[in-house]
Amino acid sequence: xxxxxxxxxxxxxxxxxxxxxxxxxxxxxxxxxxxxxxxxxxxxxxxxxxxxxxxxxxxxxxxxxxxxxxxxxxxxxxxxxxxxxxxxxxxxxxxxxxxxxxxxxxxxxxxxxxxxxxxxxxxxxxxxxxxxxxxxxxxxxxxxxxxxxxxxxxxxxxxxxxxxxxxxxxxxxxxxxxxxxxxxxxxxxxxxxxxxxxxxxxxxxxxxxxxxxxxxxxxxxxxxxxxxxxxxxxxxxxxxxxxxxxxxxxxxxxxxxxxxxxxxxxxxxxxxxxxxxxxxxxxxxxxx
Amino acid sequence: xxxxxxxxxxxxxxxxxxxxxxxxxxxxxxxxxxxxxxxxxxxxxxxxxxxxxxxxxxxxxxxxxxxxxxxxxxxxxxxxxxxxxxxxxxxxxxxxxxxxxxxxxxxxxxxxxxxxxxxxxxxxxxxxxxxxxxxxxxxxxxxxxxxxxxxxxxxxxxxxxxxxxxxxxx
Lengths: 288, 170
Prior knowledge:
- The structure holds two protein chains of two kinds.
- By secondary structure, chain A is mainly alpha-helical.
- Chain A is 77% helix and 0% strand.
- The longest helix of chain A is centred in the first third of the chain and has 36 residues, at 3-38.
- The model of chain A has no long low-confidence stretch (mean pLDDT 88).
- Chain B is 76% helix and 0% strand.
- In chain B, helix 4 crosses helix 7 (144-168) and helix 5 crosses helix 7 (144-168).
- The interface between A and B is large, with 74 and 64 residues.
């Protein structure tokens, strides 16, 4: 085929891509672009302004960003550490069917987040929760009022519930990058288990763990329903604040909500960038 | 050489049964995962459960009452319709597109990959805020179709990955 005919064919082929592209433009790209533009516009006058971003300096918004970052970072860290441990326990299980069951369970539980999860944790760790009463009865220790499920620490428990399985799912393929004979060779050279992990295992796992940290961070940062059900206005989080703007519960200009949204987008894009880079490094090991 | 063979054998024998730490870790994991779900279920069939470890009595009256309330049926039905329509739209939108890009438009693959990772970078409330702001005119303002569009955006990466990896692995 001549070059002209080929490029004509490609250009025509783009028509087939159009429906999907159009859908993404309508529901994803254009709204976000409008959002970015809107954050720089004063709604009543239509003038360009940085006022919305300046308004973000108000303690309420600084607090909400700080809380969201704290919550996401903490649950991501806990999720990565515990998830790697659990993932390794599953990976080294001798029976294949058990591993698949655990993967299926992780798939289900990581998507259980939201109001039902929040309710489940109220049943367990609420003031009259099962675990609360269990600890009271058998350990004679009163959780309340020092601890409350309707608080930051309560949210951590609920968030870790869906962060843990996500890390398990992410880290399982990474273990296949650590070949078994490497462990045996290390043993033959006199290394103990700790030395093997420190010099060989962990460095190979590191890209996956970084990918896990960023993915879990993004996952927690964007979570809404769980937080709304458990803490509502008691704890300010970015997603909750943006949610209030949508519902029109805040008397202030929605421009602040848009500025917050844009800031969140920046944070998330950084996260995804790091995640993509880390995953590419990680796949270098597992694809050998 | 012999050393390595002996080590292999010893490791294989050890690998046939799970280690103690594995069992403990998995048991705690299962506990953490299943207790909330089981507690919710137990709570739904308990007469009263706010002052004891196990429910004080069992009953199906809550299920009865739930189905008697008319809006419960409506909300259940709405959720089903929304979810199923979302899946149908995704199948109709994604599968042909993946096939098309894989066979006739390989130059679009990077763009497709980016579009499929984009939803992870947009928190749901952010997309909701932007959709509500821009589509605030009569037929689609706050309509189920807007919701379905947003749901398709967030669910399509999960359809994309298995479908895209299937031809690649053959």
